[in-house]
């Protein structure tokens, strides 16, 4: 992809963009708007002539489909696709609506509807159904869901292709519903183990043997159905062993599996190229030794697979696999897990990592990628990574972030620029192996052994908070400024929660009841309610927005209740019994007060009772009691506002005057 910006002779403003594709033209347009007009584009707010040698600029994670996109309507999808084009993205999945094709295939094979319904999960958990991790949980999928998703997918692929993007369609990875064994009793299928604290009630998916003839039958049937419905750009995604241990470590077996997956693709499309997430290699390194990695990758002809080095900013795989043993790969920034809120970045790693990978001996790198599990957080990191996809060398980050702040707020401001420099060197500069799961005590089930460690100097965030507030009079009308003020204030409050937690723990361990009552009282009755009030002042930090978007997809009251339960469970218990508790934690107005706040209130009360009665605190007993609180929130049916209330600047200033250290 190339683009050229040219001003006609004598023209003061007009600019012509000549480009090799729709995506390149959009990226050139944004380059002009950004660097010459001082404009800013944000994925959370409406709002050069030679590229780097790699071909692809990839976007999306398989999990993003559930953590962020699950309830989107066409208007939100259209805005995202336009943002993708302006950001230069030219390769992205189009996974919506695939269950329609799967349902047709299963019915044609002889499965009944109840067997299909028992296999699909609810909407908020489809990402892990598609990767073979889960079945049945929070389902079934109503007929209306299939129809609406089908028509949404038509518009998604049409819009992406009209802008010159390459769409990646899903393919068969080998997982099948239990009903296949009833229809074909001689089929060779084996159950995989449980996934992530789920037992076989909702996990332990059946995996077809790669030599079984039904592997090719099902895989080719599915892909032909999908191509007939949506057309194809010849790139397909499949992940057979996502966070699941294969049945054998024998390299010959692993090679047969990958070869079977690839042959099921080429059976429907002889030009097929397999795009595979490389997450499994770093997630289970004890299993995926060099021999096993090489066998899986070399089961596919060289050049017919592209591997996403999914967590390359922290745990690059290409370095210990000789550049994926010759298969092309895309250097990806994962950055976010579960859609958690929390200021975070590894700016030095992403500023240098792609260029180091490109110059690696015998490098097979063919692009850069953004693969967060959840979006609508930390805009700056994604803006930076998108720009690096067009660069030939690292950026001067301090100069870049100064220009970023000016574009983002629409005017230069010394205090805002200084705030961003502090954030750049602290929260956004995690070094070493950095995993961005928000483990703040604020969003985790309380205990006496909680992690409060930070990778940065907390005082930098407090000072950035002060500086942003001081810029409020000048920049307060900017929507992006108000969003950032909420986010930085939220980060400061998150740090304060850790401080009060440490005071609570010290007071309890030293049997100081007055100090325990004071610290616990401030946390439960003031700091958390004030934080909830702050979050409730901005539309992008509302629990009601998440829940009402789920209900809006429904075509009946029954569907609305099911979708809301899906949405509530995902951000809290993540499973029927807290199987992946708080993995997808969010800091949202309504959630902080009625979920996290109630948990903390119970914790403080139990500690106070323990000191009063002289009985020890038992975590297991507390866990049983607090689970009832957590489960009660999921099922309480309380409606939350989807419209913000209160003035962000005033609330932030009030918090600052009370709590600034």
From TrEMBL:
Gene Ontology biological process = system development
- All copies of domain Alpha-N-acetylglucosaminidase N-terminal, residue ranges: 5-46
**Superkingdom, according to UniProt?**
Eukaryota
What gene codes for this chain?
Naglu
Q: Which InterPro entries match?
A: Hex-like_dom2, NAGLU, NAGLU_C, NAGLU_N, NAGLU_tim-barrel
Keyword set, alphabetical order: Glycoprotein, Glycosidase, Hydrolase, Signal
Q: What is this protein called?
A: Alpha-N-acetylglucosaminidase
- The EC number(s) attached to this protein equal 3.2.1.50
